[in-house]
Structure formats: structure tokens, C-alpha cells
Design brief:
The complex is a heterodimer. In chain A, 40% of the residues lie in helices and 22% in strands. Chain A is built from eleven helices and ten strands. In chain A, the strands form two sheets. Chain A has a six-stranded mixed β-sheet with strand order 6-7-8-3-9-10, sandwiched between helices. Chain A has a four-stranded antiparallel β-sheet with strand order 2-1-4-5, with helices on one face. In chain A, helix 3 packs across helix 4 (118-131), helix 3 packs parallel to helix 5 (148-160) and helix 4 packs across helix 5 (148-160). The longest helix of chain A has 16 residues, at 178-193. The N and C termini of chain A lie far apart (54 Å). Chain B is mainly alpha-helical. Chain B has one domain. The chains are: A alpha/beta, B mainly alpha. The interface between A and B is medium-sized, with 26 and 19 residues.
Chain lengths: 286, 267
Amino acid sequence: MSITFEKVSHIYSEGTPYEHLALNEVDLEIQEGKMSAIIGETGSGKSTLVQHLNALLLPSKGKLHILERTIEAGTQPKGLKSLRGDVGLVFQFPEYQLFEETVLKDVAFGPKNFGVSEQDAIEKARKAIHMVGLDSSFEEKSPLELSGGQKRRVAIAGILAMDPKVLVLDEPTAGLDPLGTIQMMELFKELNTKYGKTVLIVTHDMEQVYRYCDRVIVMKEGKVHIHTTVEDFFHDSKACKEMKILPPSMIQMCDLLRENGFAIPEGIHHTSELAEVIASQVVKHG
Amino acid sequence: MGNFTLGRYLPLDSPIHKLDPRAKIMAMLFTLVAIFIPAGWIGYGIIFVVVSIVIIRAKLSFRFIWKSMKPMLIMMIFLLIMNILVLRSGDVLVSIFGFDIYTQAILQTLYIVVRLLLMVMITTCLTATTKPLDMTLGIEDLLKPFEKIHVPAHEIAMLISIALRFIPDLIDETTRIMKAQESRGVDLKEGKIKERIMAILSLIVPLFVSAFQRAEDLANAMEARGYAPGEPRTRYKVLKMTGKDWFFVGCSILLLIGMIVLMRFKV
């Protein structure tokens, strides 16, 4: 069980003057149980790539293996619905997909579509609403009267309630306040570590990539440019410079400390860890 | 949805494209009236030739015109069948399944079909060669004289241009919401009736919400920039009728007069 792309190309409006090659023979293997970040400039094919994962877009050329299913260009694949239940895709600004009268009903909409009984769907919805940090007083509210950030949470809950094995998020924190951003990212990390879900996040925020993700997939002009671990990616300063990426503040801070005589080990991701290292060394020096 | 050609502007460089939108709208109106004058097959032949010349001068391909007629085809076939079955005059031509088909009915129906085809041809000529914004400017100017009887010419024109401007946005939005709901297991293509109603609802409600949101944002943005309907405004693009434009309109008036003469002749 894994997700692999074999020479997948996607061409929009094939055979018209508006023809556009969005994916160009992409080879990619996404590790199960890991949290991966997809980065790249706008128009590099990130969204197109992501939409192949639950077969919203089908490859123009090439082959895809997703959780024991094979999707090949030119054939009409079967079992798309069950695939969509297994791969939960949260679009950019998902708050626009809310339509039910109450939050609870809207969140339960997904699981009900996949044949879960009314009772179980409500149960799953309650759990999902709780997971995204909303209390039960929201259940009977209309989704339209919530604030932007709350709507976003409800929309994400709508996907979580489907209990997908793979969670794909297209810029899930764009436009959220700083606290909301941290809460949502912590939630995705928890889903990854505690519930063993494979998480894929499209993002522009390098701090998020460094802090939460295990692997980085860099897209460039419809191809996978780099696919490596987060550690290797940010320590390869050539790759970062080439893409005009500033290293995350944590790495900058560690480098600065090293320059000034501190012995800082590699692989520090959290402020508290760094603080401890500094404290121990300050004590050593007296 | 990208294949929809009816009413689409084609950015080409032709003498027809350069004409004043007011001239083109007026010419279209005169020709449309001319179509409804019963001048017989000779009359329709003349109109067809004239419109074809305009299409060739505008560098439009007949394939494009044909494609824009396609959405009308089903309607025309329906009309054809209804008319042939309902009209009962002239001689009985054939009798199928107990239905008598009359010669006059077929003739009448053909008239209607030809009229519809010509109408689509003419309107396509206008929309394919005139930018939507120019068109609304033209409409505004042509409605100006009616402001005396309280026709809000400027408001109507503004309404049309805003509506046109939002069509591509709403199409994008629809595809986006469709994809989002499909990710939540909505099946827009199959399923029981109850499920399909739910599916359509899950598409329409968010679409309405976002359309209202956009409308409000736009209204605020316009107000913030000092827009007030009814106030006198200057224009960035000033339309000017030239000799060529008057010639074009003149030709269409001649066509109309010609049809009237032809009709009198026949009677």
C-alpha cells in the first residue's frame, strides 16, 4: 500500500489552442505514514498533482497506484467513490463548500455519502467537530453565521469525519490567524503521529515545512524537482538559494549560535529544545 | 464548458471588428426586422448572401458559426416536429402512424427554421466581433434618447457589463465547488433521485452564497472609489461614428427596405 506516480502527465484542454501541460512525466513515490510538504511556485503543478490523488483529475499519460488501486491513462477507472473516501482532499478556501443548515449536518454529509448510517455519521461528525477545536455549542449553528476561521475548521472537519487514510490539504492555513494556524498544524501532525494517517500539505510557509513535516516535494514546471527529507532539504543551502528560499528561522538561529561558539546539534525543531541546549551549555561555561 | 461558442467574442483583426458597436447593433436590429418580413425564399436567399459576406469580411469561419448553432439544434428539431404535427393546411403529403403530414406544414416549418438559423448567424456576427465592454457602451449610447422617459440607460449598461464580467468567474467557481463536493463523495452523474437532489443542492447553495458575497464586495469596492449611479461620468473610451459605420448601417436599412418592396411585389 503506497502512492506512486509513474510517468504521469496531465494536459489541460488537450487539442485546443488553450492546451497546457501541467504535469510532465512525473515520477513520485509518497511514503505511507509520513507527513510530506509539497512546495513550489504558483503554476508549478502542485494543485494538479494533488487532484490526481483522489482521481478528480485523471492522468493524460502514465499510471498511478493509490492504495491498491491502479489508474491508467486512457481507461475508465472503477471504484472512484471508495477511493475518494480513502483519500480526503481539502481544497484551498474550503469554507465555500458548506451548504447544510447546521454545522453537524454539514460535517455528517461526507460520511453519509460513503454509505455510513445516519447514526454513525452523526457520531463521526461530533468527533470531527471536537477534533478541529470547536465545542458542541457549534453543532446546531448555521455554517453561514460563523467567522471565517470557524468555517474553515468546519470544512476540514467535514473531510476528517470521512476518516480517510490519506489526508491531502491544499494550503489549509492560508488566511487563518497565527493561533489558528498553529492549532490546525498541530492537529494535522497529531493525525499523522497518533492515528498513523499519511498527510500531504501544499504550503508556501517554510517554517511549517521545517517544524511539522518529514519530507519535502518540490515541484517546478510540472516536474518533481526535489524529493527529500526536510533535514537534507534545508541543509542543502544550494537548493534553497536556487529557489530563493530563506531557511526557517530555527536554522538561521542555530547557525548564528554555532558561529558564536555554541555546540548546537543538528535536527532541532522546537524552541524549547533549543532553549534547553543553550541553557546546558551556558551552565557548563559557568 | 469551454466548447461553448454561442455569444463568445473572437479577438480577430478585421474591418467588421473595427466598426463602431452602435453601428453594428443598429445594423443587427434592422436585419433582424428584415428577417421577419415575409419576402419569400428569394428574400431569405438575399439576406443569407449579405450575412455571409459580413461573416467572410469579419474573418469568421463558417465552422465557428455552425458550432454556435449547435445549442439551438435540439430546440429546432423539437419545433420542427411540433409544427409538422400540428399545422393542418394544404395537401396531405404522407400519413405516418395515423398522423397526416401536410405540404403547407413542412413549408411553414422550414420558414421558421430558416429564420432561426439566420437570427443565430446575425447575432453571432455581432457578438463574435464586438468586445462585451464595447457592446455595453454601444447599448448605453443607443438607450440615451430614452432617458427622457426615465429609462436608466447607464444603469442598464453597467448591469450588463457586470453580469458579463462575472460569467467566467462563476464558471470557475462552479467547477471548484463541484470538485470539492465530489471529494466529499457527491456523485453528480448517478444515484437515486433523493441523492441527486442533495448533490445539486450541495452545488447551488455554496454558489449562491459566494455570488452574493462577490456582489457585496464589488458594490463596496465601487462605492469606495466614489461610484454613484446617475451622476454624470466621463468615459475612457469615446465612441465615434465614421463614414464606414454609416455605410454599414445604410446597407442594413437598404436590406430592410428591399425586403419590404419584395413583399409588396409578391402580394
